[in-house]
């Protein structure tokens, strides 16, 4: 839907926002949309919020936007770091979220990128400081406000691609004018530079746009690629935003308790087999295997930990669960090493690769009615043949405690089978520890 709109989106939606068209429907009901453009307007107005705040003086304004991170504790707003702390390192006061429809909410919890705070007060700040000009506002989860807290999507494989997979244009949506106006404006912006920051041309300088999402239409979805934080001084000048790199995304997951960072992934043992079966990668090999042992034995190994992160997040209104990626966290695995797990059901193996792609994403499905969290891993998300897809299986090939006692703890142990198929060797449910 969105990708089809992108051709005519540039003029139509900007002109509508410039006219200040408001939604006169009842706020407690989902509207009946007459057109795709009405739907886009509703989605943006209930995703992007106005921020009002001060630093001990006159009221100031900025923009923030919800992102659909799978946090069970928070609804998450991204914004510019300088909306949360000023040059004198004074933290924001009286921070208020202004929603479309005149509802307000006071903020009590927020986070600022630590690297950005390090640069404050320095006369000659390095140009890289804009890479870290971001923060989050954390609102307690409230399903009753879900229609007012929608949230854009994010595809990490797109964001960490140096060329953004060839994308040349983006949108910047926010509340300009600087005096508290609730007119949402969307500007079409050709991208002019890429890296850890995003550069683009804006039509004019407007106070209050800092913290706006820089977003694109990708795979039919509204997908955020950055956070606007530097407005040009004159018409046609270059604006700058923080790109949502892997470093930024990992920080967001840490702040919001989304995903599983530095965790071990295993099939749990039982009464007859007290050992767990851990997913691992050998010290000198790129093929996945398993390690057999207790939790305490696994803690002494350096090749069993992963970041299991929600790398493909759909917009809230799509009603789709996030897709996850596994990143191997062995101590010797640097940024230039092969760290991303590529699942290969056809060859009954998993390997490490150096570039994250959408084919590496999996569904992580929590098993219901189990006290301790257990998960199924389904690969891929939507098979081309219309089936349910392949499941990961970990197995120990019948090894018992005697084998473990004499050091036989590593085994190939990785396979795949049809989703929910029972007659296959290995466990199909896993825990994350």
From TrEMBL:
<keyword id="KW-0732">Signal</keyword>
<protein>
    <recommendedName>
        <fullName>Serine protease</fullName>
    </recommendedName>
</protein>
<dbReference type="InterPro" id="IPR009003">
    <property type="entry name" value="Peptidase_S1_PA"/>
</dbReference>
<dbReference type="InterPro" id="IPR050966">
    <property type="entry name" value="Glutamyl_endopeptidase"/>
</dbReference>
<dbReference type="InterPro" id="IPR043504">
    <property type="entry name" value="Peptidase_S1_PA_chymotrypsin"/>
</dbReference>
């Amino acid at each position: 839907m969105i990708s089809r709109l992108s051709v005519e989106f540039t003029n139509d939606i900007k002109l509508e926002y410039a006219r200040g068209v408001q939604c006169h429907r009842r706020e407690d009901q989902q509207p009946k949309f007459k057109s795709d453009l009405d739907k886009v307007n509703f989605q943006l107005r209930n995703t992007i919020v106005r921020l009002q705040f001060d630093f001990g003086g006159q009221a100031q304004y900025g923009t923030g936007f919800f992102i659909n991170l799978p946090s069970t504790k928070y609804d998450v707003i991204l914004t510019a770091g300088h909306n949360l702390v000023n040059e004198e390192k004074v933290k924001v006061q009286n921070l208020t979220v202004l929603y479309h429809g005149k509802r307000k909410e006071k903020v009590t919890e927020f986070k600022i990128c630590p690297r950005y705070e390090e640069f404050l007060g320095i006369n000659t700040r390095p140009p890289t400081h804009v890479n870290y000009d971001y923060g989050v506002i954390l609102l307690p989860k409230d399903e009753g406000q879900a229609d007012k807290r929608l949230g854009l999507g994010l595809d990490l494989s797109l964001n960490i691609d140096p060329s953004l997979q060839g994308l040349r244009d983006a949108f910047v949506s926010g509340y300009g004018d600087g005096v508290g106006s609730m007119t949402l404006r969307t500007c079409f912006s050709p991208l002019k530079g890429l890296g850890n920051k995003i550069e683009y041309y804006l039509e004019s300088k407007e106070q209050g746009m800092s913290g706006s999402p820089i977003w694109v239409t990708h795979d039919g979805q509204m997908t955020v690629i950055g956070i606007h934080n530097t407005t040009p001084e004159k018409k046609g000048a270059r604006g700058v935003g923080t790109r949502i790199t892997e470093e930024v995304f990992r920080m967001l997951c840490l702040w919001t308790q989304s995903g599983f960072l530095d965790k071990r992934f295993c099939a749990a043992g039982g009464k007859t087999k007290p050992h767990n079966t851990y997913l691992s990668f050998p010290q000198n090999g790129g093929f996945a295997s398993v390690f057999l042992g207790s939790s305490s034995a696994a803690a002494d190994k350096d090749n069993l930990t992963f970041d299991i992160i929600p790398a493909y997040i759909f917009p809230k209104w799509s009603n789709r669960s996030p897709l996850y990626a596994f990143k191997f966290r062995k101590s010797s695995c640097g940024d230039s090493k092969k760290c991303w797990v590529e699942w290969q059901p056809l060859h009954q193996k998993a390997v490490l690769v150096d570039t994250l792609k959408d084919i590496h994403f999996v569904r992580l499905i929590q098993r219901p009615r189990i006290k301790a969290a257990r998960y199924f891993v389904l690969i891929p998300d939507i098979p081309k043949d219309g089936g349910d897809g392949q499941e990961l299986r970990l197995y120990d090939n019948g090894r018992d405690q005697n084998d473990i006692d004499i050091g036989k703890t590593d085994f190939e142990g990785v396979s795949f089978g049809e989703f929910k198929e029972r007659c296959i060797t290995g466990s199909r449910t896993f825990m994350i520890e």
